[in-house]
Amino acid sequence: MAIIEVQNVTRVYRIGEVETRALNGVSVAIEPGEFTALVGPSGSGKTTLMQLMGCLDRPTSGTVLVNHQDVSQFNPRQRAHIRKEMIGFIFQFFALVPVLSAYENIELPLLLNNVREGDRRQRVEFLLEEVGLADRAHHRPDQLSGGEQQRVAIARALAPNPIVVLADEPTANLDTANGTMAMNIMKKLNEETGTAFVFATHDPQVMAYAGRVIRMQDGRIIDGQNALPAAALQGETAQP
Amino acid sequence: MAFRKFIAMAFRNLLRNGRRTALTALAVGLGLVVVMAMSGMIEGMVTTMLADGIRISSGHLQIRSASYDPNKGSLLARDLLSDGEALAAELESLPEVVSAAPVLWAGGLLSTPRESIGVQIVGIDPEDRFHDPIRQGIAAGQYLSGDDRRAILVGRGLADQMGIAVGQRVSLASSGAGGEGQEGIFTVAGLVDTGFPSIDQNRVLMTLEQAQGFTGVGNRVSTLIVMLQDQETAGEMAAALARPELEIETWRELNSLVLESVENGLIFYYILYGIVFVAVAVLIANTLLMSVFGRMREIGILGSLGMNRSQILTLFLIEGVLLAIFGVILGFILGLGVVAYMTYVGISIPAETAALVEGFPMGTTLYSGFAPGQFVVLSLILLVVVALVSLYPAWFAARMEPVAAIHEF
């Protein structure tokens, strides 16, 4: 049973007199434990679709179900509640809170979910071990490398045991080694925890990790309702 | 979310921009210093002016004939106290009374060969303790003694204005008890500088006996100036001494001009306080708003993690309040220093300026006063104002949609 269902969703942005149709009748379902790539050129609607799935935005029309709840008409507080409990985010720009240490950044969503201190400590320490940063726990973001920051962001996204982690170009600002490390960690945690991952990417190497690829263009899904083999993907994306 | 985590985050955010935080806190502090200094100065002026007014001029009580009008300075027998010295002796036997000084006031004209100036002639008992400030204020020559004949004291300001020196003979004219003109030649025994130019510029003092003889009022006096052990008992004493033929005024009534001036002036000061508070508030709002604009992405991240609007608002509000607390503590310490300086050293004003003040004595040094209760209230008001103003940038941060704040997501 799908954990996220996007049904015939349209999202129109208006800036002054100009109207932009970012999504145009998109329908897609994300199943538990999926490791899915959203692929498409800039402006294809990947980010908008992820924002809607992550309750960061509301559709102009259509329905978004998260864990079987129609969040399309939720108010900001209700959407914040869904994000807090069910969704983890990983951003392209290592979005850590600059005044908090690695430990505190991972702890933050647990604090928001009122997790008891002992359980918090246990969870944060476990995740720091998982991402290989136990010895960097008390470093602030500006004392960590880009790769380390993104690993903290991965741990933070998984901290509250979300049903899905949404990652927007998670390796775009990392070198190959760090990008590979980040993807390996995400894949490992996906397999260990069963948390679904949906990530937007242009990187063929990143796409190779995906169990399913959803292709988008001009605000529509053009392919990807079914899983594609990684090898086939690599060959396809290698073409100009 | 644990509130102490909010405080820790807010505190660290303030430290993140240490220079901006320090400058803003300093601005808040300086605002508080200004209002504390103004408040202390008002307190000091009221206290000093009242104390000086009582000490130099009004006393705690004045007992006069019911028909006497101090503005007219009548020398008619019916307007004067006929048994003033006996009443003074009676009063001085009371334990509540420190002194009771009989005084005669008369209008007069002081003349030198070069010019004439209208003056107030004051007849005093030189031995009375109430007149100690005059004795202590002798700037040249000597004080009056009981057997002085034709000796007068002239206020220094008046002497300077008329070019009068000690030992000089001057002419003094007054209308007597029956309305007839009186004129005599007097020798200036001393010049008086009480430190209150408005008094020293128009007074001529002589012994009571001499003044009574000069004006022809017999042994009558204009008033009895009474000093009490405790000024708060003035009302009770006035009630106890009340008689139909007497008019008794307490220091509150006698210094009503000071009290009314202060009361009217307070509105002006409250407006100034308001302007300072608003200026500080605008500065804080601007600083916090700049902080919000500089942390849009961070706000988006917090929102994406599930921090709701009221939590984001609380986070930024705490930053504003912490900033205000730093500023107020800094300002309070600096303010106490400034007020202490103004209390113990004071601020000098030109004698010409002090002389312009009419109706009550004003010295040439203004002293501040400590009003701890008022300083605390002003600090709390500033704290509340800044906290309220912080609501706007906090609300601005809280109402942002995470998706708009993050941009790139």
Topology:
The complex is a heterodimer of chains A (240) and B (409).
Chain A: E1 4-15, E2 18-30, E3 35-39, H1 46-53, E4 61-66, E5 69-70, H2 76-86, E6 87-90, H3 102-112, H4 117-130, H5 146-158, E7 164-168, H6 176-193, E8 196-201, H7 204-207, E9 212-217, E10 220-223, H8 230-237
Parallel strand pairs in A: 3-8, 3-9, 6-7, 7-8
Antiparallel strand pairs in A: 1-2, 1-4, 4-5, 9-10
Helix pairs in contact in A: 3-4, 3-5, 4-5, 5-6
Chain B: H1 3-16, H2 18-58, E1 61-65, H3 84-92, E2 97-111, E3 116-124, H4 132-136, E4 138-141, E5 151-155, H5 156-162, E6 169-175, E7 181-192, H6 197-200, E8 203-207, H7 208-215, E9 223-228, H8 234-241, E10 246-250, H9 251-254, H10 256-294, H11 296-304, H12 309-344, E11 347-348, H13 351-355, E12 365-366, H14 372-398, H15 402-406
Parallel strand pairs in B: 3-8, 5-7
Antiparallel strand pairs in B: 1-9, 1-10, 2-3, 2-6, 2-9, 4-7, 5-8, 6-7, 11-12
Could you give a short description of this structure?
The complex is a heterodimer of chains A (240) and B (409). By secondary structure, chain A is of the alpha/beta class.
